Structures are given as structure tokens and as C-alpha cells.
Amino acid sequence: SDTQPRLLLTQRQTPAVMQRIEHSFTISGAPDHKMTTRELLDTARAFQPDAIMTSTGLPLQGDDVKQLPDCVKVVATVSVGTDHLDIPALHARGIIVTNTPDVLTQCNADMAILLMLAAARRAGEYTTLMRRGWGQSLAMDELLGTRISGKRLGIVGMGRIGRAVAKRARGFDMEVLYSNRRRLPAEQEAGATYFATIADMLPHCDILSLHMPASPETDGMINADLLGRLPRGAIFINAARGALVDEDALIDALRSGQLAAAGLDVYRNEPNPDPRFLELPNVFLTPHVGSATVETRTDMGMLALDNVEAVLKGAHPPTPVGA
Ligand code: 8YV
């Protein structure tokens, strides 16, 4: 009805989330594919929404934020990461920003483990072999992977997701090392070894996995110098953000054997990652799907709606960003 709040949806959500949206909001549409920034701004001007539900890969930077109509009270991103949003610019316009932490922690940690196992155990190469027609038994020493049990996993960023990865790694009998801005209390550390700098931790890591947010300060921080500090033949995992990595340096390290393998879910240039990755058999690649389960995507959408509804009735949203 006309009295319902107006929600601009930048992409379709899961069926359960769409059902709740259609029950409580007037929407401009539910595009199959993620809108571009231009489409979002044009739709906002024409539709005059009270709220915008968006996600990663749809940048809203300072100049874009200036073009939003005054009616917008909340931008709810269906993601934990907020690097696509200019938070200070949104706040300066009096717009509340919310994200979806916690509900995706387990699935993102599962994804890091999936990438780790796939990279260490050469899942991509095995799948390619099977599709081409296996045909001949493998020799005892052919296409061998790397054992992960007993190995040292270095986690950069020991927040909610990093700790969930550490917990899983303990189940695989791995030794966990971590680097983080601050050392965690013992009960959160759960036996992991703390390093104050990434550089000091790297020589001790058989596998390295990134779990920190992207920001101007962390842009390209995993560079040639740091990759060179890993023991030769280490494995690199990234289910966090592509912007954390100098991809030229990563590709060099994979080509030279400095890295034995990598498992990547995120890239600098999404959805068109550097094509050189595809030429490397020792890289296991997925298309930014860390949170892509029915359950988690539904939980994320529901939490975003809880945030929108709270803001529109003048209450505190459950998961505001930088408030
Ligand atoms: C995306 C993510 O939000 O939460 C994040 O920060 O990167 C993902 O969960 C999701 O893929 C929708 O774009």
C-alpha cells in the first residue's frame, strides 16, 4: 500500500527474504543482477526510497552519496564488509549505515577451509583430470598434494571469522599462529601463537589465510616482500578481499614456486579477475561465494531488514556501522 515504507533493492534476495520484503515494503523492483552505481542513483532519484538495501561490488563513494535524495534514512548493506561504502560521507548526510556481521561468520570460515583443502589437495587439478577422462591409474608419486594435519596455519586478522577458521583448523590438528592489531585474551586465543607483525609470523607459516577488512591502510599489503618471507612452497588462502593483495606479486609467487598453491574466493577486479589466474593449475578459484548458502543469505537479508525496520521506526538498529 501507499503507506508502506519505500525500499530500493539493488538486487533480488532469497525467497524467504523477498516474501518479507513484499509483505512490508513498496519496492521499485527486484533486479536479477546487481545494479550499477549509476542505476542505483537513477532509481533513487525516481523512486524516492526511505531505505536502500545493497551489497558489495556496488560502490557508493563520496560523489555518489551527494546524489542520493534526502528521503533516504538508511543504507543497509547485505554484507559484513563495508569497503564499498563511504561511511563518513553517508553519516555526514544523516544516513544510518548497517551491515550483517555474525550471521555469515560460519559460512565464510567454511569457505576458507574449503579453499585450503582444495588448494592443498589439488582438487581443481583432479576435477579437470576427471572431466577430461581419467583413463590411467595415477602413479604412486603422481599429482600429490600436501598434508594439512600437523601444519602451521597463519591467520591474519583474528576477528570473528579468523577465530572461526582457527577453531576449524584445530579440528584438523593444525597449529594456529595469528597476527592481529592486538593480542586476544587467552580464552579467545585458544592456544594460538600471537605475532605482533605479519612479517614476523610469515616465516613460520605453511599456510596463510587472510581475514581482515579492506581499507586504504590494508590496500595491497600482501606484497612481494611479505610473500617472500613465507617458507618456499607455502599455500595462500584469501576469502576476505582482493584489495588486500598485490596480485602481480601473488601471480609471480605462484609461477616461481615460492607458493605451491592458492585458494582464492576474492579478487581485485570482480567480476572479471586477472585472467592470468586461470592459466595457473595450482590456483583453486571460486566467484566470491563465501556467504553463498541458502541459510546464510537468508539470515543476512533478514538482519538487513531488521536494521531497516528499526531505523524507520526510530529505534536503534541491531548492527549499525561506525555509530
Ligand atoms: C557479500 C561479502 O556480501 O559479507 C561480505 O563482506 O563479501 C559477501 O558476503 C555477498 O557475496 C553479497 O555480495
CA radius of gyration is 21 Å
Stretches with pLDDT under 50, minimum 5 residues: none
Mind telling me the CATH class of the largest domain?
Alpha Beta
CATH topological fold name of the largest domain: Rossmann fold
Question: Your description of this structure?
Answer:
It holds the Pfam family 2-Hacid_dh_C. Keywords: Oxidoreductase. The protein has 323 residues and is α/β, with parallel strands linked by helices. It folds into two domains: 6-103 and 294-312, NAD(P)-binding Rossmann-like Domain (Rossmann fold); 105-285, Rossmann fold, CATH 3.40.50.720. The chain contains twelve helices and twelve strands. It has helices spanning 15-24, 37-47, 62-66, 87-92, 105-120, 123-132, 160-171, 186-189, 198-201, 224-229, 247-256, 294-312, and strands at 6-9, 26-27, 51-54, 74-77, 96-98, 152-156, 175-179, 193-195, 207-210, 234-238, 259-264, 283-285. Strand 7, helix 8 and strand 8 (193-195) form a beta-alpha-beta unit. The site of 2-keto-D-gluconic acid has 11 residues, from loops.
